[in-house]
Amino acid sequence: MEIITDNFAGGGGASEGIRLALSRDPDIAVNHDTEALAMHAANHPGTRHLCEDVFSVDIPAVCAGRPVGLAWFSPDCKHFSKAKGGKPRNKKIRALAWVMVKWARIARPRVMVLENVEEFKTWGPLLADGSPCARRKGSTFKSFISRLRRIGYAVEWRELRACDYGAPTIRKRLFLIARCDGHPIVWPEPTHGAPTSGPVVAGQLLPWRTAAECIDFTLPCPSIFDRKKPLAEATLRRIARGLRKFVIEAAEPFVINVANSKTTGRGPNAWSADEPLRTVTAAPGFAVVTPILTEHANASSPRCNSVADPLRTQCAQVKGGHFALVAAFLSEYYGEGSGGLTRATSPGDPVKTVVAENRHALVTAHIAKLRGTNTGHAMDEPAHTISAQGNHLAEVRAFLIKYYGNEKDGCELLDPMHTVTSKDRLGLVTIRGTNYVIADIGLRMLSPRELFRAQGFPEAYIIGDRAGDALKLTKSAQVRMCGNSVCPPLACAIVRANVPELARRQVAA
User: Fold this and answer.
1) What is the C-alpha to C-alpha distance for residues 250 and 254, in angstroms, rounded to an integer?
2) 88-136: per-residue pLDDT in tens?
3) Which class for 365: exposed (0-12), middle (13-18), buried (19 or more C-beta within 10 A)?
């Protein structure tokens, strides 16, 4: 019977895809990282695990005379990725893919698959300072392909996105398939697409799965105003832009009712605004929240995304995770209460009864405080100092975002607030004809389990985050395993399209 090997196996993304496709685990898994192999072993106990450098593996001894039907390779990609910026590259790490040629010469696997970042095609020599040689860009990649073809392999490569094959992430990677058995290389057809695309509308494809499916909205999302250490200005600007795009200006905001524990297929009472608005209760806590995702760890990027889209690519190098959930807590609004204060509620208070008094007043003419004895201050004064003890600002719409309908920038925290217009538009969100104001903003990093869901791992996959798990890994290690992993649904599609007979042979045995 032909065997299956997974080189650079990591925490087991490719191996999980192989199991999903063929109902069998790889026979051999190789990786130098003990933590990665510990996660792999917890989920693939029937695999033989080799904790060593891929080039040191004694291939004839490992194969023991058995033919290799499938060999998977996912060499370290960070020294090709554009995410590395202008930092020096490592020549040794960039050469790891040559082990695929070694396996081709010695074991001659019938089918081989290599996964890497799309920049892998630019593989070329490095200059003395560790930067890629622009003049010889892609020359080593061409030599690599030529070597495989001279050995007798047909070789093709394509860039594929995980979201097109059922994973809730847009992660795009280069896949290279080489085979020497005379059969054609098969590229799997997408199963999912953009919700508004023709094939999805016609029912030919399923709509992309979304980040909202992966998020546990029952987890606490602490207020950004209660932090001991204030958020960086770049983070606040990113939050402001995200709120403007996906909450204030959104035609169809994504809404969660956090006051009710009942769940739907997309999480706890999650619905799009193209569905009827659910009943808003007076239970303690905010009744309505509309979430966004931000690349919290990247200070140079203002990018935010809707939870109604697939999650963007998770990087392994970002300690603690790449993405943060920003929750805009909404409070129903029809006017002002006594003393000129808006009808916003504290996170621990019930949602107040809404009345229609003094609807035409300028609610943006002051900044209300939800905590402490000070009731607020005028808009022509500088914003007061934010602290965790008392100055909890309720008018987040005026505090974070200057939104007149045509201006794009936020305002600095300690600068005087900008001119107030006569139109009550700052931070006002209308859902099904009901007006809401942003009463608070919560922020938390996505958990490792949420990230593994987005990567397409099954819920039962062991990552060491649950009580009773024999696997013990830190949160940072779990996130690293996720960022380094292959998306199982995409690996499954490639394997099933090219070596379905391996599953049949396993069943027959």
Assistant:
1) 9
2) 566 667 788 999 999 999 999 999 999 998 888 988 887 787 777 788 8
3) middle
Quote the crossing angle between the two packed helices 34-43 and 475-484, to the nearest 10°: 80
Interatomic CA distance for residues 385 and 382, integer angstroms: 9
pTM: 0.78
**Cα dihedral 151, 152, 154, 160 sign:** negative
Other CB atoms within 10 Å distance of the CB of residue 26: 28
CB atoms within 10 A of CB 375: 12
For domain 3-204+466-508, say whether CATH 3.40.50.300 is its number: no
Helix, strand, coil tally for the chain in percent (to 5): 30, 20, 50
Q: What does the pLDDT look like over 238-275, one tens digit per residue?
A: 888 888 788 878 877 888 776 554 443 344 444 443 44
Q: Is 444 helix (H, G, I), strand (E, B) or coil?
A: strand
Angstrom distance (rounded) from CA 159 to CA 170: 12
Please state the φ and ψ torsions of residue 460, each to the nearest 5 degrees: -80, -5
